[in-house]
Amino acid sequence: MVAAGDSVIAQLDIARTALAEAKTIQETKKILDIASAAEIYAKRQQLGEEAIKYATAIKVEALAQLGRMLKETKRNKGAAGIGINQYTTEVSYQNGTAPPTLMELGLDKKTSKLAQDIAELPEKELEKVKEGVVTLAKAQRKARDTEIANDRARMAEHGSKIIPSEKWRVEVADIATYQTETKYDYIITDPPYPKEYLPLYEVLARRSKEWLKPGGLLIAMCGQSYLNEIYTALSKYLHYYWAACYLLPNQPTPLRQRQVNTSWKPLLIYGSVTFSQNELFKKIDSVCKHDDLYQGFHVIRFENTGPEDGKMWLDNKLATIDELLEFLQFNHNK
After folding, report:
1. Which pLDDT value is given to residue 268?
2. How do residues 277-303 score in pLDDT, each as one tens digit?
3. Which pLDDT tens digit goes with each residue over 80-131?
4. How many CB atoms lie within 10 A of CB 67?
5. Strand partners, 217
């Protein structure tokens, strides 16, 4: 009678051989599934460290191989605004068919990203993951940190080669420690949106207070998920005045942490001092008018809480709901 642990190891031996011979993403993904299932089974049945570690090693090998394959293959962009990290093999692309999506390859975005991150690990780091010394989650975080550091280094190198101009200049520095005697009319920025970057907003507010001219404005584009924390951080050093809306028509962005899609971004407007509404509107117009997507500055005013319970005015002219909806299509400026 064959013990369960011996049976699992025998199946893993077959899987490892098949992995060495795998030529396609689908074949490699199948072996990854087998190894993952074997690892779970070995843990639940308490088949011993040998079986568990063997399954883990093959799973990690399959992930790394899958990641290399994904990086080497053509990408399917999908329908406009929908396709994300979608790939194909060279053969199907050359045959004139549309590259298959991740879903058609039996993959999801999370697995695809994990595989590509693991494939970037140096051989010594990869061996630690195979041996179970380092978890996949920790290895992926390290791979992402390395990727970010490399991207920053490339941007810094590119910036250092740009020829200076009297009209503008590029400087690569840490906003928390950067020093300048220059005072600015406007500071316009689009900080990172993930939660771990929230502390940047307090730093941004503090430095903006130092750098803005009297009556100058900070205009910060941000995400919607953590607006309450952002308002609090910016208000520690600056005066809140307005929140504008930057429309992104036909570009829905999923906010997975809130489980909603959005087609706009907030523009938070703060100043070092308070000023009148007319001054604010003139400043916003002067900043935005050079943007091809800018549709002019308009004011919508409601008699009560909305268009359903009272009159409303568009740019100081009485308007109906239909007129407002038509106006918001912005076809009048095309």
Report:
1. 95
2. 666 677 677 767 777 777 777 888 888
3. 333 333 333 334 344 445 667 778 778 888 889 899 999 988 899 899 998 8
4. 23
5. 186, 271
Side chain identity, residue 56: T
Question: Between vectors from CA 260 to CA 322 and to CA 267, what angle results, nearest 5°?
Answer: 70
Could you give the domains of the chain? 4-149 (no CATH), 185-283 (3.40.50.150), 298-334 (no CATH)
Q: Of the candidates 193, 207, 194, which has an alpha carbon nearest to the alpha carbon of residue 270?
A: 207
3-state DSSP assignment of residue 249: coil
Strand partners for 76? 86
3-state secondary structure 221-257: ECCCCCHHHHHHHHCCCCEEEEEEEEECCCCCEEECC
Predicted pLDDT at 204: 97
H-helix or E-strand spanning residue 317: strand 317-319
> How far are the Cα atoms of 17, 204, 224 from residue 200, in angstroms, in the given order?
50, 6, 16
Pair of tokens at residue 36: 């993952």
The closest of 32, 106, 100 to 65, measured between CA atoms, is 32
Number of other CB atoms surrounding residue 323 within 10 Å: 13
Question: Per-residue pLDDT tens for 195-222?
Answer: 899 999 999 999 999 999 988 899 999 9
Q: Which residue has the tokens 């009048």?
A: 332
**Exposure letters 115-143 (e unless 16+ CB within 10 A, then b):** bbbbbbbeeebbebbbeeebebeebbebb
User: Residue 252 is inside which H or E element, if any?
Assistant: none
Beta strands 317-319 and 253-255, pairing class: unpaired
- First and final C-alpha spacing in the chain: 79
Orientation angle between helical segments 49-72 and 109-119, nearest 10 degrees: 90
Residue 9 banded pLDDT, cuts 50, 70, 90: confident
Contacts 24+ apart (CB under 8 A), 44-50: 45/4, 47/4, 47/5, 47/8, 48/5, 50/5, 50/9
> 55 with 39: CB under 8 angstroms?
yes
